[in-house]
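quick one before i forget lol
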Amino acid sequence: MQILKGKQYFNVRSFENLREMLDQSERLYRDKVAFCFRDNPEQTPQTRTFGAFRGEVDELGTALCALGLQGSHIAIVGENSYAWCLSFASAVCGAGVAVPLDRLLPPEEIIGLMQRGSVQVVFYDPSFQQMLQENSNQLPGVKLLVRLRDTQSKKIPDLPWDKPDAGLADEKSVWMRMEDLLQFGKKRLQEGSVHFREITIDSKAMMSLLFTSGTTQASKAVMLSHANVSADIRGIAGVINLKPGTRMLSVLPLHHTFENTCGFFMALYIGAEIYVSDGLRYIQKNMKEYGIDMIVGVPLLFANFYTKIQTTLAKTGKDKLVRKLIKITRALRHVGIDLRRIVFRQLLDAFGGRLKIGICGAAPIDPEIITFFDGIGFRILQGYGLTETAPVVCGCHSRLFVPGTVGQPVSGVEVAIDTDRPGEDGEILVRGPIVMMGYYQDPEETVRVIDQDGWFHTGDLGRIDPSDQCIRITGRVKSMIVLKNGKKVFPEEIEQLIGHYEWVKESIVWGVDGPDGEVVVSAKLVIDTDLFSQQTGSDADESGIRAAIEKIFQDINSSLPSFKKVRHFVFSFKELVKTTTMKVRRPIEIDRIRQMMEKHKYRWQDVTGRNIDSYDQSDNSSDQK
């Protein structure tokens, strides 16, 4: 076993729970802007200072406690908003346990997660009102449902809202508005209520219950404590030096622990200004409008930025010039002269002109994207983490920047690679205060993933590069292809190579059992026909695409050991099946192809190089008959 221990480079405030952290930030930044937001893109932005936010947390928490709901499991479902943040903060600051839910899940899954999470209070966006009304009989444990924002659609009839002064009903759920709860809590505070403020926070008790995206099996319910999240904030702050007043754009969904810890609580810890995005199609507009300094995102977001710039440069014929200038400015940086933000000001102005830092996680990102943006003055720090680790385990940071790696552990965390051979791949293990309490009501699974020495077994594969002592993620244990001779192939490594061809939207690589018992490395590619025609100059028909893909694998296979070479491939124009966090549901995709092959008794030589969509259509037509 090889072990790396996180170092601390910067001073960090001491706190044991999130309420203590928020109290510190209120004292430090009371009159500074904490949030800027609007409930629809046409509105004038509203702001809340740290002092105002902290006050409204108390108002909402006081109202919930006055209704007898202290200790409840409190679900929040909706788009990113100030009201969402307020609800979550009030829950974890003493009202109960926060249960953030993915708003993009089907209604039956949302209801199912509420049942699994023992939810008693639901904060919801107006768009969920009708669904909740129709399914309320399936939620007998829910006592209170609260509409987060006053953005009621004309298509949804308004309710006869219950008033907090009347209390809760014994045998049915009551429906209230957030604004009424805040007024009720404010009144109780003015009358001298201190109950909510004086609740003792147990830093080791469950603070939030988060459901994983479930790419390989049913989602797991992860229990995180104040101690877990507080340790992760301190760990990140120990390696990344961010200044108060940093303007951060909230883009990723807040139910995801990556955004929740990094884009929400970490932002409040450093005294940042959180600007809530108006939606995915408004990101660039919001960056310009607000002058954003920093953004937390997934690889797809940064890849879209990269593609827009490259497309513009290609159209204007400036792509070669920019790459020459990057080489010149890189050479100047070696002698202490940094002109990037002057030379490439026009490119940076497209993103507001102030963008300096990106935090990237949740999936691998092409190192070329990181290198290019760093070349023009925008540094993307790639990290690695899991819901079970609150979530950030390691990453590149203010003192360490190695594109293509996820850097080293954050302060206070240990990462191990479960092999004794330097540079060899092994399962990634994590130990430290960021490791979850366990899975909710599932002690057997908890014991399976957290061993007696406190190591959490991530199921991910990686290696410690001997040259720079940085961690490289190579794949998943469950997706790893094991050949007959015992050699191992990591699909993600090959998928990343395929991803260098822009006209391939996405791909999946897996092992197919051959007739002689050998495992054959195979692939499915999703093609962007417009980009294919533009970049190859060929027609996007079956023969043209097959020839181009064959050329791809000639190039890729020439750089791989023989046992890793891709032997079979199919292509498609339909996107791969994904979770709402855009992770490919690998088993579903592979099983679909396997079932199609078995149904028609096809061999791989019958379908390799072909458009798999045509076989799906024949399956559908035969099913309809």
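fyi The CA atoms of residues 487 and 563 lie 8 Å apart.
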